[in-house]
From TrEMBL:
UniProt keywords, alphabetically: Hydrolase, Magnesium, Metal-binding
Chaperone as UniProt keyword: no
Listed name of the protein: GDP-mannose pyrophosphatase
Domain spans labelled Nudix hydrolase: 42-181
Binding site for Mg(2+): A84, E99, E103, E152
BP term (GO), one: ribose phosphate metabolic process
Motif segment (Nudix box): 85-106
Organism name: Aestuariibaculum sediminum
Length: 192
């Protein structure tokens, strides 16, 4: 049995993505029905990938300005992140292969899905699909940087895996998805 009923949705904003207010009855574990209200932001689902080269012992990350972080404690607003993007109605695999080419300039043949997880489950509907993918020099097709038409301005960082782990351990990575995939690489000994 579902623990919710009488769901009423009110649109608060649909400027670029959609923000709705939901008022609903929720069944407490005690058996009591209570009324709850939640604002829910819907901007679709996303996909992200850790790109690695075992032979070179390197990974590719990105650096870009993120306004929400600038507004909350990140002095210059730049964030080091895995390559990632939002699903444009395509499936997660196609999305991350497309994003990899747009953002960092490599045309991958195959990727491996490792996790599927909600990004911020109290606030957003977004589910994130996590991938890893091995890149080699002969897969390079452009210099990356993102879509000029969207004013994306993405710096491509190819760095030793050891350096990425040093950044992780010294608290210089402030993006959860990037932390997740670097830890995945460590746990699964991806570079060995
Ligand atoms: N005009 C306008 N453009 C926007 C807005 N929000 C996003 N965009 C544009 O939408 C595009 C999104 O680029 P993607 O690479 O597809 O997504 P992303 O921003 O990298 O998102 C990834 O990371 C997010 C975490 O910060 C994830 O939430 C998301 O699922 C994805 O993995 C960019 O061109 C960006 O400029 C907005 O409010 N207004
Ligand atoms: Mg992106």
């Amino acid at each position: 049995m579902k623990p919710v009923k009488d769901i009423k949705k009110t649109l608060l904003s649909n400027n670029y993505y959609v923000l709705n207010k939901f008022v609903f009855k929720y069944l407490m574990r005690s058996g009591e029905w209570v009324t709850q209200m939640r604002e829910v932001y819907d901007r679709g689902d996303g996909a992200g990938i850790l790109l690695y080269n075992r032979e070179k012992q390197t990974v590719i990350l990105t650096k870009q300005f993120r306004m929400p972080t600038f507004l909350n404690d990140n002095a210059d607003g730049f964030l080091v992140e895995i390559c990632a993007g939002m699903l444009d109605k395509d499936n997660p695999e196609d999305c991350i292969i497309r994003e990899t080419e747009e953002e960092v300039g490599y045309r991958l043949h195959s990727v491996k899905k490792v996790y599927e997880a909600y990004s911020s489950p109290g606030v957003m509907t977004e589910k994130m699909h996590f991938f890893i993918g091995e890149y080699t020099e002969n897969m390079k097709v452009n210099s990356g940087g993102g879509l000029a038409s969207e004013h994306e301005d993405i710096e491509v960082l190819e760095l030793p895996f050891s350096k990425a782990i040093e950044m992780l351990n010294s608290g210089k990575i402030h993006d959860t998805r990037t932390i997740v995939l670097l830890q995945y690489a460590l746990i699964h000994k991806l570079m060995e």
